[in-house]
Structure formats: C-alpha cells, structure tokens
Amino acid sequence: MITVDNLKKNYGEINALNGISFEVKRGEVLGFLGPNGAGKTTTMKILTGFIAPSGGEITIDGLNLLTDSLKIREKIGYLPESVPLYTDMKVFEYLKFVTEIRGIKKTKIASRIKEMIKVCGLEKVIKQDISDLSKGYKQRTALAQAMIHDPEILILDEPTTGLDPNQIAEIRELIKKIGEKKTVIFCTHILQEVQAVCNRAIIINEGKIVASGTLDELQVQAKGKSYITCQIQGAETEDVKNEFKNIEGVISVSVLPQKFDQGHLYKLEVSEIDPREAIFKKVVERKWEMLSLTQEQVQLEDVFRSLTQEHESK
Q: Structural domain tally of the chain?
C-alpha cells in the first residue's frame, strides 16, 4: 500500500531524515514511534504532501508522490498534531464545510456526515460551537474531518496529546475500530499507545529507523533481554543481589519498591539463558523464603530504551 524508499529531508545543515525506508501493508495499523525530534512529524508531513522531500521515493497505492500528489491526497485522511478546526463554527457546519472542500457529491454529503457523527460519537455535540467543546470532542471532530471523504489511508499524528485517561481510552477504541477497515499510521512518542492499538511498530531516532516489527520481533532486536521478578523474605537485600549477580544468565539485579511488608521484590534482567532453576536452588541453599518467582514479559518501554540508547551510543 505504502512504500518509502531512502527518504531524506534536510533543513539547511540539519538532517531531519537520513534515508529511511519502510512499507505499510493494506489494512495494517502501524505505530510510528520515536522520541521528540526524531523525525516522526516530518515523515508524516511528507507522506501527506504538506512538504517536499529532499531525496528518496514514495509510492502510495501504485502512485508516485511527486507526480501524482493530488490523486494520493484523495486517498489519505490526515489528523495533524495541531487539530485543523474552525472554532467559530458549529460541529455540523464544520463537517459540511469539509465535505464541500473535499469535493464530495451533494447527494452523498448528508450520509457522510451522518456516518461520521455515529463513528466518532458526536451525537451529543453536533449542534455546539467547536470553541465550547472539550479537548476530547475536539479530537473526535478533527478525526471526523480526516475520515469524511472515506479515505483508504488514515495518518494520525499524536492524536491523544492533551487528553485525560478516559478520553485517551475512547480515542484508542475508536482507532482500533477504524483500523479494521482502513490502513492507519499512528504517529506517537507514547509507548502505551502502540501496545494498545498497533499491529506493528517502527522506531525512529535521529532521523533513522532503528527497529521495525511486531512487539515480539522488537524484543528480539533488543538483544533478547527479558526480566524475572522474585519476592524473597528472610534475607538482606545486598546478600540477595550479590548471590543472584553470580548466577549465569543474570545481567543485573535491582530492588523494587514494595506495597506490602513481606520481604523484598527483586527485578532481574536476564539473557537468553533461563536462570530460574539456579535461582531456586540458591534460595534453598541460603534458607531464604521465596514467595514468588515470575517470568516478566518485556515491555515496549524496555525495548524502546534499549534500541534508542544503543543507537545514540554508536
């Protein structure tokens, strides 16, 4: 559906994008993830035709971005980080205005507005001034404008910025629903968003792609590290840390804060060698009390930190 080949963007002497390449399949929800200033928004602006690249090639549904820009824009719905709203309009007036500038046939305008009201949950605010809406409903209205022309591709740049937890959950569910029928690129620096919404993720840092794949695949790229938590009582924390550090497969040991008064909870970063049997034997040997021993799933935060820090150190 989308092919990006050796994309570059320079702002004077600053290289915002350093030859990135990736593909997005039809019907995929792709997380475009990276720290602030990594090049995420620049990439989105180029994909949507807002700015021109300095080099490289982009093909969307078989069309070249440089020679078929207008046809490509018809296929894309874009929600930029700063939502494009006319706050002096009412919600209905605004959506009708967008249908007109999008060139939607007059016979279809009413049905498209009605569908967007339903999909984006705007029934309660359709007659209100946009200026009076909560941040969540403004985001919903902006999302409706991005989808009003029924695009094949939806590009969302930081769509949950500034929302409260309830609003974030609502927008996440809405994007999941949309992703069942459309190709979606979800641009964010919030790790939980990718875990909650996306099928696959690309991690970009300093204008370069440092990783791409499903969460499981990213875990492998992050050197295969994983974690074990172990709750122990009847032992000094320094003794436990020193003993565990000497076990094969254990990379590091830290003590986690407890909410209950039953010993201490230790977090062990481990390699591909499973040290759980050796840990159990050591606890028995030292006559400590083990209350739990759990293999933890690697979180995207750990993967992200590992990949971006590794990239920066090179």
A: 2
